[in-house]
Structures are given as structure tokens and as C-alpha cells.
Design brief:
This protein is of the alpha+beta class. It contains 3 helices and 4 strands. A hairpin with a 2-residue loop joins strand 3 and strand 4. The termini are close together. Bound molecules: FE2/S2 (inorganic) cluster.
């Protein structure tokens, strides 16, 4: 299994769009799936994507924009596929 690095923007614009909630939801899903050893969560300052909808999230080198409500879908669609 690969070790995946997920970076969540905690810059002011993403903070307002719910980056804290995105982080909380990701933490909960990671522990639910017992993936603590496989996934590293990091915070980052503004990644220059403030104009997009949702919180800027970087998985390895790919960028996504994730709203809190979409976090679980994002986890299942993007994260789980990269873990396998
Ligand atoms: S604050 Fe997150 S991309 Fe700018």
C-alpha cells in the first residue's frame, strides 16, 4: 500500500469555505477505515486557488476543490482508489 499525502488549504478563503470541517471529516474517515498509517494529513497556506468553489485539497500532486458536504464522496472516489 502506498502512503498518501493529503494537504488541505487552511488559508483565510478556504477557512471560510470550511477547511476545518473538511479536515475533521477526513480524520474521522481515516480512523474509521484504519488508514492512519497510510495517509498523512497536512495543512497549507493559500495555494492560489481561492477563486474556485470549495476548499483546495492536494493529493500527492493533484489538486481538488472539496466542499465539506462533498468530503465523504471525495474520500471514497479519490482517496480510497489511490490507497488500493
Ligand atoms: S485560501 Fe485556500 S487556495 Fe487560497
Amino acid at each position: 500500500m502506498t502512503n498518501l499525502e493529503i494537504t488541505i488549504c487552511v488559508g483565510s478563503s478556504c477557512h471560510l469555505k470550511g477547511s476545518r470541517d473538511v479536515i475533521k471529516i477526513l480524520e474521522r474517515l481515516i480512523s474509521l477505515h484504519r488508514l492512519e498509517d497510510k495517509i498523512t494529513l497536512k495543512g497549507s497556506f493559500c495555494m492560489g486557488e481561492c477563486s474556485k468553489n470549495g476548499v483546495c485539497v492536494c493529493v500527492d500532486n493533484d489538486r481538488f476543490n472539496v466542499a465539506p458536504l462533498d468530503t465523504e464522496l471525495f474520500f471514497n472516489d479519490v482517496i480510497m482508489k489511490r490507497i488500493k
